[in-house]
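Example record

The entry below shows one chain as it appears in the dataset: sequence first, then structure tokens.
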Amino acid sequence: MTTRAFLASVAVALLAVSGAADPSRQQFPEIHLVDLAGQNMGLKELRGRVTVLNFWATWCGPCRIELPELQKLLNEFGGKGLVVLAVNVDLPPARDEEAFAQELVAAKPRLEAFLTASKVTLPVFLADGKSQEMLDLERIPLTVALDGNGGVVRVYSGYSPAGMQDLREQVGKILAERSKQGGK
């Protein structure tokens, strides 16, 4: 199943999702991310934590509006167990690790300057080539709210103030679910 088809099926399934914990939530594809220091991380490492993934680029106007909003969200809920990852997709999907590492070295100063100017301190990652190809992102920003099991709660394509408000509400609900279940 392509990621586009996956996200479409998730959107349909989300129409039926209530605020309660739902074991039938579709799992977000396992992708691998690389931080600005070149360290690898898989999404499975975040299991047990409510996670918001935001796919963005420095050239994307709506992303520039959304990133500070996501920073506020992390500031508000980070102490309650929320993880927000800003996944940059500026780099072309490199076919191998060596090419990806070279592109990261070249892009790092530009990304750090952008983040400093934006006053964004979110953890920033880049998707490796295989993950970028698998996700086949057509529109950014793309924000995905995941429960502690990696299940997709909501997908937000593009930016809107209403979408950010809904994300805030969904994060509150997911964290409340976890609290009732004894989660961190």
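Notes for this example: The chain has one domain: 3-15+25-180. Helices lie at 3-14, 61-77, 97-118, 129-135, 161-180.
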